[in-house]
Amino acid sequence: MTSIQSADDYDGDDVVVHSAQLREQEKAPLLEEGKSDSRREDSSQEDDPAAVKKRNRRRWRSIYVMYFTMFLSAVTFSIVLSSVWPYLLQVDYSHASASFLGWVVAAYSFGQLVASPFFGAWADWRPTREPLVFSLVITVVFNLLYSWTGAFSADIAGWILLISRALVGFGAGIAAVVRSYVSEATTESERTGAMAGISAAQALGFILGPAMGLAFVPLGSKGGHVQMGKLGLDFNMYTGPGYIGALLGVANILLLVLIFRECKLKGREKQNGGRKMQKLISESTASNASCAMQLGHFNRAAAAMAVVLFFIILFAFAVFETIATPLVMDEFAWSRKQAVFYNNAFFAALAVVAIASFIAVKFISRRVDERVLFMVALFLVALAFFVLIPMGNELPKITISTSIDALPANNSSVIPPVVVANATELEPVGCRDPPQTWCSHVPRIYLFQYLLALLLVAVGYPIASLLCYSIYSKILGPFPQGTMMGLLTAAGSLARSLGPIFVSTLYHHFGPVVTFAAVDGVVALSIILLLVSCRTLVPFGRQPGWS
Question: How many angstroms separate the CA atoms of 324 and 321, rounded?
Answer without folding.
Answer: 7
